[in-house]
Amino acid sequence: RIVYVNGAYVPEAEATISVFDRGLLFADGVYEVTAVIGGKLLDFAAHMARLRRSLRELALPSPMEDDAILAIHRELVARNALDLGHVYLMVTRGAADRDFAFPPEGTKPSLVLFTQARAAIETPEATRGLKVATVPDLRWARRDIKTVQLLYPSMAKMEARSRGADDAWMVEDGFVTEGTSNNAYIVTQEGTIVTRSLSNAILHGITRAAVLRTAAEHGVRVEERAFTVDEAKGAREAFITSAGAFVTPVVAIDDVPVGTGMPGELTKRMRANYLEEALRTAI
Ligand code: PMP
């Protein structure tokens, strides 16, 4: 694989980054993951807008303008002949002597991008649905910023796996926040999609925004509000969204089947509608 590190396209085995990089020492960095289908980027402008917001919230310097970042995405897709998968992008505060205080102004941020090929469309998860296990949400209070500080979500996923599930849904004060790397939804018995409203408690998913837009266009009712684990267990359907999973059904919560225990009809329709819209606007 050819990867991009601080201005250079290099084979992955030759890519280097400083041991003093603050991404490594403090998880002082932010990231984006943009899906690629047929060599095209999905929702690219929205990912850049969120990247800008994450950078601003952490007073991280911008490595370059959006069009230059787009050019790197395209170059990597081309050099790696990527058809299906995603591009990972990370910006850190760069290398500086280890100190909790931010380094002096003028310290160059690090910019790293790489591609990951993945059979993202016809996945077993999409066909059979995911089982989720609930765990307490022990992350920090600024989950709206897409930082590379992902240890707790990683631990939560392992906890879910150890309980025979595929992923975790995190819970705070009795209400589901989101999945380890995705937003969480239920469909009520009346056919309304319910997903938590935007706040610092969850990441503002790009796929979430697109799916809610699609729902509105198709006349599907949506309520943006928190839901409890009990409400979710009694729901007709459940699903998650992310740039990696698009819309993927959830068929069990803590071993309780959701609805029929099979991927829901509305969920399947939302997946198809989302993919159609995202492909139409891919660049
Ligand atoms: N929530 C969390 C915690 C995530 O890590 C992600 C994906 N990175 C999402 C939600 C989904 O966001 P998106 O649709 O932008 O991929």
Summarize the structure.
With 283 residues, this protein is of the alpha+beta class. The protein contains eight helices and 15 strands. The longest helix has 16 residues.
Describe the structure.
The protein is α+β, with helices and mostly antiparallel strands and 283 residues long. The chain has helices at residues 22-26, 44-57, 66-79, 124-128, 151-162, 206-217, 229-233, 265-280; strands at 2-5, 8-11, 29-37, 40-41, 84-92, 110-117, 130-136, 167-172, 175-179, 183-187, 193-195, 222-224, 237-242, 246-253, 256-257. The strands form 2 sheets. Strands 7, 8, 9, 10, 11, 12, 13, 14 and 15 form a 9-stranded mixed beta sheet that branches. It has a 6-stranded antiparallel beta sheet with strand order 2-1-6-5-3-4. A hairpin with a 2-residue loop joins strand 1 and strand 2 (8-11). The two termini are 22 Å apart. The model has no long low-confidence stretch (mean pLDDT 97). The chain binds 4'-deoxy-4'-aminopyridoxal-5'-phosphate (PMP). 4'-deoxy-4'-aminopyridoxal-5'-phosphate binds at residues 33, 178, 181-183, 203, 205-208, 241-243. The site of 4'-deoxy-4'-aminopyridoxal-5'-phosphate (PMP) has 13 residues, from helix 6 and strand 13. Pfam families: Aminotran_4. It is an enzyme of class 2 (transferase).
